[in-house]
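Course assignment 3, question 2. Fill in each field.
Student: A.L.
Task: Predict the tertiary structure for the chain below.
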Amino acid sequence: MKDLRDEIKSKPQKMKAIDPISQILDEENYDNVILYDPDKKPIEFEQVAVIPVDDDNQTTQTLYTIMIPVTPMQGVGEGEGVVFKIDEVSHDIEVVNDEKIIDKVLEIYQQLLMEGEGEQGKK
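Answer field:
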């Protein structure tokens, strides 16, 4: 897969009142997220999930988000998700290209989905 790190930047543009990180972390906000490529062209993403992943020392967590591009993106098939790492300190977001991290995020996401289905069945 093409290295997408340089393809997408999350620095908020002046035309957006809310930055992408705040939008993603807002549990009440399900609006699509707009990120920008190096040429300042907007790329729209549908939010799927925010996934906390325990770091190796298990004392901290790193946040990741899975989003599906609504705007066609080179190297990403229709309906495929993209995993991003959220840096709450620098207020930045970056594409994850490490397959181990992607697999871990998707595994946790699947577990959360299965737990959610189990909870719905109890109602």
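Instructor remarks: The longest strand covers residues 42-54. Residues 20-122 form one domain.
Grade: pending
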